[in-house]
Write a structure and sequence with these properties.
This protein is an alpha/beta fold and 351 residues long. The protein is built from eight helices and 14 strands. It is 29% helix and 23% strand. A six-stranded parallel sheet has the order 5-2-1-6-7-8, sandwiched between helices. The longest helix has 19 residues. The protein binds 2-aminobenzene-1,4-dicarboxylic acid. 2-aminobenzene-1,4-dicarboxylic acid binds next to helix 5.
Length: 351
């Protein structure tokens, strides 16, 4: 009898939404991180079926999701639209595939784990309930990465946050619209909004996703619901304002927290410095902080700077968090979940 060693364990992987912004980075991360893939399938809607995508030395031909058979696929990384995941993630799970879904469709279901591997890896153990693990929203991921070490040390009662989010979170069409509006304006032509709700070039829009009855947008409520679920704390109060800015890649956040016990800025800096996946850049001089474009874009870490005590509150701390919304905010976090799953739960998997 042959027992596979840890090293030979290779699994079949499907990337669903492979022609999208996130799907493309999922494929490059599988390659870059040497994920132990046997077959890799690039899957997308019928519109993209037949396109070719480079992966390692091969060319993958994009397959049509509608007719794609998931049997024999160990892990599927999903990043299509929420309505597509609603239909096809359960179908993949029924075929025995573990789905890691990047849409908002399953995040708030009680029997679906919502995971940031550095923050709540144990939740991955719940994957077998529905065969689906949800990847959180990009803005939530980078914020909870910075909250977690402080939360564990002194507790957090309340979080006020304003986000400054890149257009790539909304997909390829939103990226193209910012490019086209910029070119139009430089040529003395009007910037017509089609994808964004108002002019995006050289502007700032206080709306991401749709409005809810309470006056918050759905993106803002995602940050509330997801922070509570990931930290397993229904009592933590989160008050977000989500804003779109004319940046292509990398979300920024101004985060203001009220801790349970008092903590100094120096202690927060030390805690964040020691947390995996976080890089502190906090020099208190011109440019001595991370920005979306100069540090985050194209890189893996969550960067934190501007750490200081809140003048207006005895237990308040402020900081600035930036990260690549497509990498740690989406594709990287999903691939990290897949790596954890493989290492801890699929040692005996025979794909
Ligand atoms: N509407 O993962 O528009 O729920 O930037 C992420 C980003 C939804 C999500 C965006 C969105 C999500 C956006």
């Amino acid at each position: 009898m042959h027992f596979e060693t840890e090293m030979d364990k290779k699994v079949n992987v499907a990337v669903v939404g492979a022609t999208g912004e996130v799907g493309g980075v999922m494929l490059s991360l599988l390659e870059e991180r040497d994920f132990p893939t046997a077959e890799v399938h690039a899957v997308a809607s019928s519109r993209s079926a037949g396109k070719r995508i480079e992966f390692k030395a091969e060319e993958l031909v994009v397959k049509d999701l509608a007719s794609f058979d998931f049997s024999g696929i160990a892990i599927a990384l999903f990043s299509p639209g929420a309505s597509v995941s609603a239909l096809h993630a359960p179908r993949a799970a029924a075929a025995g595939t573990v789905v890691i879904d990047n849409t908002s469709r399953f995040r708030y279901d009680d029997d679906i784990p919502l995971v940031v591997p550095e923050v709540n890896p144990a939740a991955i153990g719940q994957y077998a309930k529905r065969g689906i693990i949800a990847n959180p929203n990009c803005s939530t991921i980078q914020m909870v990465m910075a909250l977690k070490p402080v939360y564990d040390a002194v507790g957090i009662e309340r979080v006020n946050v304003a986000t400054y989010q890149a257009v790539s979170g909304k997909g390829k069409k939103a990226i193209e619209e910012l490019e086209q509006q910029t070119i139009a304006l430089f040529n003395g032509k009007p910037a017509l909004p089609m994808v964004h709700p108002r002019q995006m070039a050289f502007n700032v829009l206080p709306q991401i996703d749709v409005f809810q009855e309470n006056g918050y947008t759905r993106e803002e409520m995602k940050m509330v619901w997801e922070t509570q679920k990931i930290l397993d704390d229904d009592a933590i109060r989160v008050n977000p304002t989500c804003v779109r800015v004319p940046v292509f890649y990398g979300h920024s956040e101004a985060v203001h927290i009220e801790t349970k016990e008092k903590i100094s800025a120096a202690e927060v800096r030390t805690l964040l410095d020691g947390f995996p996946g976080v890089v502190v850049i906090d020099e208190r001089e011109d440019g001595g902080y991370p920005t979306a474009v100069t540090e985050a874009s194209g890189h893996d870490p969550v960067f934190v700077g501007r750490i200081r005590e809140d003048l207006s509150h005895p237990r308040g701390i402020n900081f600035w968090v930036v990260s690549d919304n497509i990498r740690k905010g989406a594709a990287l976090n999903s691939v990290q979940i897949a790596e954890y799953l493989l290492k801890h739960f699929m040692a005996a998997y025979k794909g």
